Hints:
Elements: H1 3-6, H2 9-12, H3 16-25, H4 37-51, H5 54-67, H6 73-83, H7 87-106, E1 115-121, E2 128-134, H8 135-152
Antiparallel strand pairs: 1-2
Amino acid sequence: MNASTTLPALVLGMRSDEWATALYASDMPTRRGEHSPDQIAAWIVQGVERLGGEVATWQRSQDFLKVLDIRDNARYEAERRRLFPKPRRHDRARGAAYGLCLDLEKAGVRRHFPTVRVFLPVDELGDLYSVEVPARDVEMRRRIAVERAGRAA
C-alpha cells in the first residue's frame, strides 16, 4: 500500500482524534471487520462532510478531548454520551482511527504536525507566557474566528 498517494490530503492532514470523530458520523459499520485504509479514509471524508466540514469536525474532536480531562466517571460518561450518544460506535470509530495510524506507520508514512509558539499576556504589566501548540489548532481557531466575523458583519 502506498498510503501517502492513495489517501486524500484532507485525511492525511487530520489527527487521529479527528478521524474518530468523522468515522462516528459516517456510514462505517459498527460491527468489527477488516476494511482497507482507502475504505476507512472514504468514511472519514464522508463524516467530515456530514459534520459540516473540516472545522466543525476539528471542533467536535476538541470538545471530546476536553471531556477526557474529567476525573468523575459519571460526569465523564454523561458528557461523552452528549457528544457521542452511541458509546459502542464511538469505541469502534476510535479503534478504526488507531488501526489506520498503524497501517500508515507500517507503510512508512510519517505524518508530522508542526507546532508554533504562541505568546499570551499574563498580567497588566505586559509579561508574556509562551507555549508551543499544534499549528493545526491555531489555523482551525483562525478559521472559526473568520467565520464568526463574517456572520456578524
